[in-house]
Each structure stands twice: as structure tokens, then as C-alpha cells.
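User: Please fill in residues for this 206-position structure.
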């Protein structure tokens, strides 16, 4: 049963986060918001997109393998842990969708180095700099706890690596180049994924 619940949540989350959001963005801005150029093979952008694609496929395989009984894992705690997983999955999804909505016209999937979008620093972005990715990570952990399999565990690990690569090696350099001191000041105040953690302290002038 948990496998079916996890599968439904995963598909609904994908549909809302990518399908529905792209349609809304297209209607409001004349553009889907997708920037899917992978960059040069072996580049940070290329690795980020590859890892995200693998994580998404494994995320789908997680509940499917739970349903068919392949690679199931046993986690101590039983129903309590499964309940925590359900709460985390829903909380992560809510955070992700709220952050996407708060981004408005600045919402993108991927980065176009030649594009300049408005920097969003209010709402959930006043607490963490990457609430969309924070929500994705929390939701992935929740789905693993709800329907633990080798595939769902691997999906979570690959997703966490993909997020680190995308944020640290692709998005943060782009934001520093696009917004300069405004982004540096923001990064010094606000944590990367968790409030107050991962802030980038500015060096005092010499």
C-alpha cells in the first residue's frame, strides 16, 4: 500500500512542479521556463543535468520496486517511521511548490548564462537561498522512509549530489556574475539549504 501512496505522491509532485508550473509560466510570461541545454560534456552543468535525470528516474523506480517487491529495505520503527516519511514528503512538496510560486517570472529549470532574471529574496527565500531544492530533498527523504527500497535510497543520494553540483558549481557562480554585490550580501545573510547554515561570509575590505 505504501508503494502506491509513494508512487501517487511522486507523480503528483512531478506533475505540479514541472508540468503545471510550466503551463502557468507559459501563460503568464510566454515561456515555459525550461533551460535544458546540457553544456559541454563533462562540465558542471552537464553533470548537474545528468545527475538530476538519473535521480528522477530512480525516484520513479523507488515506489515501483516497492510495489513489485524488488529491493525492499526494512527500517526500524515501522508505522511511525512511515508516518514521518509521509509528513516529510508532503512538507517538502509544499515547500517546493510555494517557492516556485514565489519566484514568479524568475522561475527557471536550468540556467542560461546570457539571461538576467530578477533575484528573489522574500518569502521562503528570506529563510534559505534554495528552497526549491530544499523541498525536493526533504520530499525525497520522506518518500524513501515511506516506501524504502534500494532504488529510493539511491535516488535520494543521487539527488543530493545533483543539488550540490547544480547549486555550488552552476547557479551560485551565475548569480554572483549576474547580481554582483547584491547576491553576495544575500548569501552572507541567508543559508544555502537550511536557515543560517551555508552562508557565504564576505571578506572585509583590505
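Assistant: Residues filled in for all 206 positions:
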Amino acid at each position: 500500500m505504501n508503494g502506491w501512496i509513494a508512487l501517487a505522491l511522486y507523480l503528483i509532485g512531478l506533475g505540479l512542479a514541472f508540468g503545471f508550473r510550466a503551463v502557468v509560466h507559459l501563460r503568464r510570461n510566454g515561456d515555459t521556463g525550461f533551460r535544458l541545454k546540457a553544456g559541454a560534456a563533462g562540465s558542471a552543468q552537464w553533470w548537474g543535468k545528468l545527475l538530476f535525470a538519473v535521480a528522477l528516474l530512480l525516484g520513479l523506480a523507488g515506489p515501483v520496486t516497492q510495489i513489485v517487491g524488488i529491493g525492499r529495505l526494512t527500517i526500524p520503527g515501522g508505522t511511525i517511521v512511515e508516518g514521518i516519511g509521509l509528513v516529510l514528503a508532503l512538507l517538502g512538496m509544499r515547500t517546493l511548490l510555494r517557492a516556485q510560486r514565489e519566484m514568479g517570472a524568475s522561475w527557471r529549470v536550468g540556467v542560461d548564462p546570457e539571461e538576467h532574471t530578477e533575484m528573489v529574496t522574500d518569502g521562503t527565500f528570506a529563510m534559505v537561498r534554495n528552497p526549491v531544492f530544499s523541498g525536493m530533498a526533504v520530499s525525497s527523504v520522506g518518500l524513501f522512509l515511506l516506501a524504502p527500497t534500494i532504488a529510493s535510497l539511491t535516488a535520494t543520494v543521487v539527488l543530493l549530489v545533483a543539488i550540490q553540483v547544480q547549486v555550488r558549481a552552476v547557479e551560485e557562480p551565475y548569480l554572483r556574475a549576474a547580481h554582483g554585490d547584491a547576491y553576495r550580501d544575500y548569501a552572507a545573510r541567508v543559508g544555502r539549504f537550511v536557515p543560517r547554515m551555508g552562508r557565504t561570509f564576505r571578506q572585509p575590505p583590505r
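For context: The first helix runs from residue 2 to 29.
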